[in-house]
Design a protein that fits this description.
single chain; 329 residues; alpha/beta; six-stranded mixed β-sheet; disordered N terminus
Length: 329
């Protein structure tokens, strides 16, 4: 009897020993994986870029833009964006509204309120009225009251969405004359330099409306001091992504450690936007671009018929989706 009892106890002890060893092994494995990730510095940042929405509550289509369908196109984009549960933020790179009236800004905000992710904004040339009521101060105050994540009192600002990442939003819209050209004044350039000086170890994401690097030549839409801004940005060696709109075109250009990304308009063909995943590794940073077209295919087909040259706006396949790599120096 004693011998049988001894065997039963041995079996019990063996079972609990194996269970304890299994738990310890799982804990050690999880710790090692966490340690490897921490050691490599691999962190991801994921966001959506929407540009040139040109929202108009009761508008009509033009020869180029599907203004009359802008509310439906925006709702479709929001629904698609909300399918992602891991976005850190959504950035709108200008021309949120088509006509610079307060009633249009107030009309678009309930649509944006449906976004599940925090959203931010850079001014476009259609967003403010020269000499009109919808000034920078009125616009910003309206956004602050409607968007709990938007607390900025200037048209250009910065924030840190995650450790080792810096987001910089620029305002390169000329507000004292009616023009589609852009310009960065000296005060903002000095502020930008200060921000970049403080972020030399970070991956920097810069958002603006008028592009630094044009997807195609357009003298009436260009940034007048693009060379100055480009030289400043490229004087830094850390990974930098520059995200732009305005031209309604799709293009990605890499200059060493800087990516210049032009994203198409939601309101005109190809009626698309981007999902971008930035991965920060020990020795490199990767940008993974996912191209998202509207599901409103009837509207998109109409928009294509209105486009002068659809290939200009869609770009090449590598301008739409793909992975770009920047080595850390």
């Amino acid at each position: 009897m004693r011998k049988k009892k001894y065997k039963q106890n041995s079996k019990k002890e063996g079972f609990f020993t194996k269970l304890a060893n299994t738990i310890i092994t799982l804990c050690l494995t999880a710790g090692m994986l966490w340690g490897l990730q921490a050691y490599s510095g691999a962190t991801n940042l994921k966001f959506a870029q929407l540009s040139d929405i040109h929202f108009l509550a009761n508008g009509s289509n033009t020869t180029f833009k599907m203004i009359g369908e802008s509310p439906r196109l925006l709702d479709d984009a929001i629904n698609q964006i909300n399918e992602y549960n891991d976005l850190d933020f959504v950035m709108i790179t200008g021309d949120l509204i088509d006509k610079p009236f307060e009633k249009e800004l107030n009309a678009v905000l309930p649509h944006l309120d449906k976004l599940n992710s925090p959203w931010y904004f850079a001014f476009g040339n259609h967003d403010r009225c020269v000499g009109g009521y919808l000034t920078t101060l009125v616009y910003l105050e309206t956004l602050r009251n409607a968007n709990e994540n938007f607390k900025f009192k200037k048209a250009y600002y910065s924030f840190e969405p995650k450790k080792n990442y810096k987001v910089i939003v620029l305002d390169n819209i000329i507000t004292n004359s009616i023009t589609s050209n852009g310009y960065i004044d000296d005060a903002q350039l000095k502020w930008l330099k200060k921000e970049l000086d403080a972020s030399k170890k970070d991956t920097v994401l810069i958002f603006m409306h008028v592009p630094v690097v044009e997807p195609f030549a357009s003298p009436n839409h260009r940034l007048r001091n693009a060379i100055v801004l480009k030289q400043l940005i490229e004087s830094y060696k850390n990974p930098i992504g520059v995200f732009q709109g305005h031209y309604h075109a799709t293009k990605i250009t890499q200059h060493d450690n800087v990516l210049y990304v032009s994203t198409p308009a939601l309101v005109s063909y190809p009626n698309a936007f981007r999902i971008v995943t930035v991965s920060n590794h020990k020795d490199k940073v990767t940008f993974d671009f996912t191209w998202k077209e509207t599901k409103e295919t009837t509207i998109q087909k109409m928009a294509k018929l209105l486009a002068f040259s659809s290939s200009i706006y869609t770009g090449e396949p590598q301008d739409q989706s793909g992975i770009y790599e920047i080595k850390k120096q």
